[in-house]
Protein: IPTL-CTERM protein sorting domain-containing protein
Amino acid sequence: MKSLLPALALASAFIAGDAAAQATTYTFLGQPYDTVKNSNRCTVGECAIYSKAMRPKISLTFSAPLPANLMPGDHRWRVIGFSVDDGIRSASSYTRTAALQTVNVATNGAGVPVEYDIQVQRLPGPPYLDGKPGGPDSRFSYVYATDFAMQALTNGACMRWAGNASQPQYCAEGIGDEGVSSASVAGSPTVTRAAAIASIPTLSEWALIVFGMILTGSAAVYVQRQRTE
Structure:
C-alpha cells in the first residue's frame, strides 16, 4: 500500500491538472486608427463615431498553446473563448453577443502567430435565421485582423446568417449601407500570449478531483494506521 500512495497522489494531481487545461490567450492589438469613415445618416441599429485615438483589439483563448509551425487553416475548433473591442463597444463569447467568423492562423517555429486572418463579430441586433435577412435589426459589427492591418466596421446589414445550435450565429454575407461607420489601421498588430485564467471545473471534473483526493486521503490514513500498529 505504501508504494501505491505516491501513485494515487500523482493520479489525483493529474486529474486536477486535467480539469484546468493549459488554455492560452492570444491578443491582437492594433495601433490607433489612421483612417476613419463615420456615417452621418445612421437611423437603425447601433450608430458609431470612431476617432483616431481609438484602437481595435481581438483576444482569442485557445484550449492549449498553438503548436509550432502550424499550417494555415480554419482553427475555430481550437478556440474556447474570445472577445472583441473596436474602441467604442466590446463583446465576448461568454455573454453570447459575439461570434467567430474566421480564425485562420499560421505560426512560426516558436508557436507565435505570424500569418492570420481573423474576424470576430459583435451582434448588436437579434440574429435572424437563414431566409429572414434584411430586417432593420438584422445588423452586425466586426473587428478584422490580418498580419498587416486591422479594420473595424459597425452596423453593417446582414443578408445571410449562418451557424448552428452549438455555435452562435454569425453573419456570413453582409453589405454596407448609409448607416455604416468604419475605421482601419495599416501595419501589423501587436500579438501577445499569456496563460488564460483557469476556468471553473464542471461538476463532472469536480467529481474526479474529489474522488482522487478521497483515494489519496484514504491511502494516507491506511499507511498511518499500519505504522501505529
About this structure: Residues 203-228 form the longest helix (26 residues). Residues 7-20 have pLDDT under 50 and may be disordered. The chain has two domains: 1-20+201-229, 22-197. The CA atoms of residues 25 and 61 lie 4 Å apart.
